[in-house]
Amino acid sequence: MRIHQHFSVVGFCNTYVVGDTTSKKALLIDPGHADIELIRLLQQHEYTIEAVLLTHRHAGHADGLALLQKIYEFPVYAYEDPSHPVRPGKPLLIGPFTIIPFPVGGHSRDSVVYRIEDALFTGDALSAAAIGRTPSHRLSEHLADGLNRILSSLDPQTLVFPGHGPPSTIRSELLFNQSLR
C-alpha cells in the first residue's frame, strides 16, 4: 500500500490517494478539491479509483467529487449514506483494501475515521496536536472521548493522516495532544 498526500490551497485540505502498487487500484479519501495535479498523480501511477471515502461532508472534503465523477466512475462511501453506508464495526472490503470505519461524533454528525492497515485517516476529527472544532464544550468532550477509545485500541505506531496539517502517529497524539488528556 502506498499513500499519496495531495494538498490543496483551496480550503487548505488534504486529499489522500491510497494505492495498491500491484493491482493499481486506489481509494481517494476526502477529495476536497480536484485539480490537474491530483489527476496527474492518478495517471502517473496508473491507478483505477475503486471508491471514494468521505470522513464527513463538509465542502472542503467533498467539493472535488463533482469534477472527479465527470472523469471517473466510482462509488462514494460515507456515514449514513443511503447508497454506500458506512456502519460502525463493519469492515468495508473494497478491491484489495480492508477498511475499518470508526464513526466519531462531535465535529460533525457524520464524522468517521478510517483505518486501512497501519494508517488512520481522521478528516477534521483529529489533527496533529488538536481535535476538531465543535459547537459546544459538551460535543468537544464527546469527540475527545470517542477519539481516546479509538486511539487506545490501535497500535501506537499507527500513522495518523488528518484532513488538515501534517501527519502524526497515535503515540504522538496520546502523549502530546492536550485535548485528548
Sum up the structure in keywords.
181 residues; alpha/beta; Metallo-beta-lactamase, Chain A; six-stranded mixed sheet; 5 helices; 34% strand; globular
State the gist of this model.
By secondary structure, this protein is α/β, with parallel strands linked by helices.
List the helices and strands and how they pair.
Blueprint lengths: L1 E7 L4 E7 L5 E5 L6 H9 L3 E6 L5 H4 L2 H7 L4 E4 L5 E2 L5 E3 L2 E7 L8 E5 L2 E5 L2 E2 L2 E2 L5 H16 L6 E4 L5 E2 H7 L5
Q: Could you describe the 3D structure shown?
A:
The chain is α/β, with parallel strands linked by helices. It has a single domain, classed as Ribonuclease Z/Hydroxyacylglutathione hydrolase-like (Metallo-beta-lactamase, Chain A, 4-Layer Sandwich). It contains 5 helices and 14 strands. It has helices spanning 36-44, 59-62, 65-71, 137-152, 170-176, and strands at 2-8, 13-19, 25-29, 48-53, 76-79, 85-86, 92-94, 97-103, 112-116, 119-123, 126-127, 130-131, 159-162, 168-169. A 6-stranded mixed sheet has the order 1-2-3-4-5-6, covered by helices on one side. It has a 6-stranded mixed sheet with strand order 7-8-9-10-13-14. The mean pLDDT is 93.
